[in-house]
Amino acid sequence: MATDDAKRALAELWEQVLARWDEAALHDAALELARASAQLPELAARYRAVKDDAGAPESRRELATKRLAAIALVAMNTLDASRSTPRAGPPRWLTIVVAVASVLVSLWAAKQVLRP
Predict the structure, then answer these.
(1) In the 8-state DSSP scheme, what is residue 1?
(2) How far apart are CA 33 and CA 27, in angstroms?
(3) What is the mean pLDDT of residues 101-114?
(4) C-alpha span between 71 and 16 (Å, rounded)
(5) How far apart are CA 100 and CA 112, in angstroms?
(6) CA-CA distances (angstroms) from residue 26 to 29, 33, 54?
(7) pLDDT per residue over 4-61, tens digit each?
(8) Is 39 exposed, middle or buried (0-12, 13-18, 19+ CB in 10 A)?
(9) Cα distance between residue 56 and residue 60, in whole Å
(10) Cα 88 to Cα 60: distance, rounded to the nearest angstrom
(11) What is the pTM of this model?
């Protein structure tokens, strides 16, 4: 969850992005700030608004589309990096229960076979 300071920082940086749209470094900085402060959806919404603005120049809409793709890629990489590795095999408690039950059944069977 983004803090109020992070939200404010992204809003201020976005104003700079809009004012100097052709500066790639500002777009990159906005993407990094959004990634670091868990605000990728907010940044994507801002780019989506530019992309969907019929009154915006075509070059601006095209760049917004490319930046949306970059945001999606960063989001997927972030999810992939946070994925935990699945456990191999059954849970430990189940293994112990099955082992104890097997020993008890084996002892009972041995008792039945060896009964005089």
Answers:
(1) -
(2) 10
(3) 92
(4) 18
(5) 18
(6) 5, 10, 23
(7) 999 999 999 999 999 999 999 999 999 999 999 999 999 999 999 999 999 999 999 9
(8) buried
(9) 6
(10) 49
(11) 0.70
